[in-house]
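Lecture 7, part B: from sequences to assemblies.

Below are the input chains for today's worked example.
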Amino acid sequence: MIEKHKQDFSDEMIRSFLLGELIGGEQSEFEEQLFTDDTLVSRVRLTELELCDEYASKRIGHRERQIFQERFLLTHDRREALKISTALGDRFRTEATRHSVVERIRNLINIDQAVWKYAFAALILIIVLATTLLVIKDHSRITQWIPKRVAPRPSSTATPQAAHHGTNSSAPAHKEQSPALPVHESLTPSGVLTSNTPIDSSPVITNANRDSLRFEIILDQPGTEFYDVSVMTLSGESIFSATSLERSEDKLVLDVPANALNAGDYKISLTGIDGETKRDAGIYYFRFRY
Amino acid sequence: MSPAKKLKELGQQDFDRLLSWLDADRERAGYLYEQIRWRLVTILAARGCTLAEELTDETIDRVARRVTDIHETYTGEKALYFLGVMNNVHHEYLRRPPPPRLMQVDEEVEAREEIHLCLDNCLAQLAPYSRQLIERYYAEDKKAKIDLRKVIARELGIKASSLRLRALRIREKLQTCIERCLDSVSEARP
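Predicted structure of the full complex, as structure tokens:
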């Protein structure tokens, strides 16, 4: 017996056969192979069910639906298969409607997808770059966010209260004032100078690690308000001078930078300023030692 | 006399002879008979025959009556002998005036309920994996369904064509199970 060559029919051809759309030669060839090829039988059976499913779920076009009704639903078994397809569709579409939205969202945001990983990486990069740009371009705004440091105010400690004070008496009002912060002017004078004191009996001033030395110069005749002051060595070399110092009652206050002085003897010459005229107001001596 | 009625009148002796001719193993012969019957119906339906099942019964009836004459002389694929007889039966059918088309009766509510009941029973008999697969395969509609099937195939790491085959084989099992279930329901009906 000569075995005929088996043709590999496509799924489309199987559908066409079931819908009665194969033409002469193809039809007879298909029919003959259907009787000898079990694999083809299996495929045709599955395609029959698939057609019923597609018809039941309205997944075939208008023309195919018409052919299906006229040329496919000719047997009892197929009509029964269609009923089961309809029942399957009803059953699972009803269940699917509940899950479909969740399913779609899950598929959409499937974190395993590489595209999401790249998107997150890009997002983080953008945030980092944007922050850097903001800091560079608008530093003033950033500084507003940084809280300013406020120096703590000096505050007095509460006076201790005696525990044995009467309970009916009101607590004594706190009258102690905060001690005033020392001001520059209130520095202790390094020396008080009077006129006509000879060099031998003049005061000895020590540095005591101060930046400047304060002298109180007692005026003999406080006739003018302002004075020019010149600090010199005994040989007459000027080392420091100040102009238009204002008198305070009968004395002048003079601050001399400590680094201008070396250990030695010095004299201070005063010149009173009275309008346009100037006149000598006395010589004062002092000794400076480290 | 209708062909179906003729088959009913086919004696047990003729039918047994037909099965013996198909295969010495009775079970195997029964399987071959079912296969041949399905093929005949399918081909007649594909030809647009509105009486495919009746003409198939007529074909089988004729072959059964001839088995005594041919069982010693016929060589070749026995199934193909049915095809030849069927062609004759079909030609005779085509020469007859077309039968009136029966009006399709609407499905009864009761029958529909029975199908749903059987469907539930048969789904419960499926393995969890098969049930889950078929549920997802038949979920959604139209375009959404196609997309979902792509997703399922990707998840399972198989091609869409392989998924289709797997699902349809489960569907075929369901079909057989539901048909049996409906048969038993109709038998139990008073």
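Note for the exam: The CA atoms of residues 217 and 252 of chain A lie 5 Å apart. Keep this in mind when comparing with the next example.
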